[in-house]
Design goal:
The chain is an alpha/beta fold. The chain has a single domain, classed as Rossmann fold, CATH 3.40.50. It contains nine helices and eight strands. Strands 1, 2, 3, 4, 5, 6, 7 and 8 form an eight-stranded mixed beta sheet that branches. The longest helix has 20 residues. The protein is globular, with a radius of gyration of 19 Å.
Length: 240
């Protein structure tokens, strides 16, 4: 069996798939970030998964022949792409009888991460570094993706348009809890865009933003900690 992890990042999905294909198969992870792929290669070596390989690539123009893979897996990567182009490539490289499995973010305006971005605009820095411009462009694509494909029906239609059949989409809700608001803010700082936005702010604006964000986040606080639910859509589809 040959499996593609599309948008592999640090290799989590590829590493989960590796034992299923055994040493006789192959799992190939593709991602645009060499930095993330370096982590993925190190983790695969740590676990002794010689069947895993990782390479830099573009999900809009995969460097594989038609019908190459028996399965394609992709978790939270499609929103960084032009979805119609990426899905067309997935269809091209998937073998007849093969399966595509996706996890995508659902449209959810109530999540605390979203609340922070809603508070952000008045405090944004006037100057924009090249990295910040890149991250903002990525975020804009992600927002547009969720508006266009953020429901089960929308992503089903997109996959059908790409040629896939037996498309099934299931909404999932995952309750999540951390100790307190400080713990959530530490988690939120792991977002490259949010971290870059905060670092670019003048010190006064930074303090004002964090105070405004904390006020919005109080709705998620309770005696049991800081809790929220994130919503995703799990999708499977096939090629005949």
């Amino acid at each position: 069996w040959c499996v593609l992890d599309a948008g592999a990042g640090t290799g989590l999905i590829a590493l989960l798939a590796a034992p299923r294909v055994t040493k006789s198969g192959a799992v190939i992870g593709v991602d645009a970030s060499e930095q993330m792929l370096a982590h993925a290669r190190a983790r695969a070596a740590q676990f002794g998964f010689s069947q895993c390989a990782f390479r830099a690539g573009d999900l809009h123009a995969l460097d594989f022949s038609a019908n190459h893979f028996n399965a394609i897996l992709s978790q939270f990567a499609l929103h960084y792409t032009e979805p119609a182009k990426a899905l067309a490539e997935f269809y091209r490289v998937l073998a007849p009888g093969g399966m595509l499995a996706l996890h995508i973010w659902a449209l959810d305006s109530s999540a605390p991460h979203t609340k922070m971005y809603q508070v952000l605009p008045p405090y944004r820095a006037n100057t924009e570094t090249e990295m910040l411009a890149h991250l903002r462009a990525q975020a804009a694509r992600s927002y547009l993706f969720r508006q266009t494909f953020g429901t089960s029906a929308q992503i089903q239609d997109a996959l059908a348009s790409a040629g896939f059949v037996n498309v099934e989409a299931r909404a999932e809700a995952h309750p999540t809890r951390v100790a307190n608001t400080d713990a959530f803010l530490e988690l939120a700082h792991a977002s490259p865009l949010l971290r870059a936005e905060i670092l670019a702010m003048p010190e006064i604006s930074r303090g004002e933003f964090l105070r405004a964000a904390r006020a919005e986040l109080r709705a998620f606080e309770s005696l049991n900690g800081f809790a929220w639910t994130f919503h995703v859509i799990a999708v499977t589809a096939h090629k005949v």
